[in-house]
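G., the chain you wanted modeled:
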Amino acid sequence: MLAISPKSAIAMIPDGASLMIGGFMGVGTPELLVDELVRRGKPELTVIANDTAAPGKGIGKLLSAKLPRKAVVSRIGLNPQACAWRLRSLSSSCFGMVGVRTPRC
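Predicted structure as tokens:
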């Protein structure tokens, strides 16, 4: 199996890509890859994940950098930035909750 660096892996992801990111509340999230996404400032991402983790942890780093255009999550989690980042639920269901960035919250 060929291993590549996080830089090389993230270089293959186009702006506006949809990414499925594993982990629960930041545990199990590929931190090196998330850090490289933030470093490169990949814009307009659609993030599909379990939750939005916490500020500075896991997917929360992407929210802090305002990189996602849209997040599809089962729950917001404990991240107060999720509302500040203007995520709003489009579904009252606890499962398959969809958050989108909106102009005003």
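Residues 13-101 form a domain with the Glutaconate Coenzyme A-transferase fold (CATH 3.40.1080.10).

Shout if anything looks off.
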